Structure formats: structure tokens, C-alpha cells
Amino acid sequence: MDRMKLACAAIALIGIRSDAVAQSHPPTTGMTCAEARSLVVAHGAVVLSTGPTTYERYVSYSGYCGLGELAGPVWVPTQDTRQCPIGGRCVPVGRGDRS
After folding, report:
1. What number is the average pLDDT over the span 68-76?
2. Is residue 6 included in any domain, yes or no?
3. Where is the signal peptide, in residue numbers (predicted)?
4. Which domain range does residue 62 map to?
5. In what order do the strands lie in the sheet with 54-59?
6. What is the pTM (predicted TM-score) of this model?
7. Inside any domain, residue 14
8. Between vectors from CA 41 to CA 37 and to CA 46, what angle results, nearest 5°?
């Protein structure tokens, strides 16, 4: 019985932690272009919010993309720049930056 309680508690904690991570998408509009670019470079790949209901995964280079993908250039709005070249977004090879 104690094992069952421990297992349930562990599953609950994992669920809470997953929700917290899933919801932490720092908004690009709340940081400068330099700060946003530094965040992508520091982490290699990061999910950022670009608006109230939009978010995307940005990468510093193609090494953070999956097989058959390359990092296509992408620009996002920031506090000081309307189109900040933040890094890249993974796109299938041959598609360029078309989504």
C-alpha cells in the first residue's frame, strides 16, 4: 500500500513539474533584441512567446534541429525592435523558411 501511495505522489509531482515547464515561454516583447538573441545562444534551443497566444521553438543553429531539418532564419518582435533576427526555426530541408 505504501508503494502505491509513493508511486501516486511521484506521478503527481512529475505532472506538476511538466505543466510548469510547458507554460514557461518567456515573451520576446518583454526583452530587448540582444537579450532574446542571447537567450537562444545560451540555451541552443528555447521556446519563446511572441504574443498572447503564440509561441515557437527557436534554435541557435541547425544542430538543434531534427533529421531532415535545417535552421531557417527567423525574426521576432522584441521590446526595442520590430524584427529581431533571433536565430533560426527548424524547417524541413528544401522548404526554406516557408511554414
Report:
1. 97
2. no
3. 1-22
4. 25-99
5. 45-51, 54-59, 84-92, 69-76
6. 0.69
7. no
8. 85
46 domain residue, yes or no: yes
**Interval 46-75 mean pLDDT:** 96
Q: What are phi and psi of 26, to 5 degrees?
A: -55, 135
Supply the pLDDT for residue 42: 97
Looking up cell 529581431, which residue turns up? 84
Model confidence at 9, in pLDDT bands (50, 70, 90)? low
How many domains does the chain contain in total?
1
Cell of 43: 540555451
Pairwise CA distance, residues 37 & 28, whole Å = 10
CA dist 34 and 84 (Å) reads 9
Report percent pLDDT > 90 for the chain. Answer: 65
Assigned C-alpha cell, 86: 533571433
